[in-house]
Each structure stands twice: as structure tokens, then as C-alpha cells.
Amino acid sequence: MIVKVNGENLELEKSLNVADLLIAAKAEQPEYVTVQLNGEFVTRDDFAKIFVNDGDEIEFLYFMGGGQLG
Description:
Blueprint: E1 2-5, E2 8-11, H1 18-24, E3 34-37, E4 40-42, E5 57-61
Parallel strand pairs: 1-5
Antiparallel strand pairs: 1-2, 3-4, 3-5
């Protein structure tokens, strides 16, 4: 099956839950990532419950805080 992660095709042998997908896709800093599945945000509590399917589009989003210099 093929899913699209951050705009890139990723081939998976089987459907994975979001938590396992973070590992398979080698997400950077998975403890800080926000996940969007087909345009809908997935809560961290649901990472183990929600599975991706063939053709799904997943975005790993990282929100960075910032401050003012000077």
C-alpha cells in the first residue's frame, strides 16, 4: 500500500497505526509532532487507535515557538 507522508510516497507492507507510522517514516522528534491525516488533526491519544489506509495523505507538523531578539 502507498501513503503520502509530507508530500512523499511511502510504501508500507500493511496498514499501520499513526504511532507505528511515525517510526516507519522516521519522523524527527516524534514526541513533538502534530499529525494531520487527510486534512484532519489526530489527537496524540488516538495515535495508537487510528490506522492509515492505502492512498491516505499524512502531514507531520512541527510548531516552533519563538521569541524576540534584542
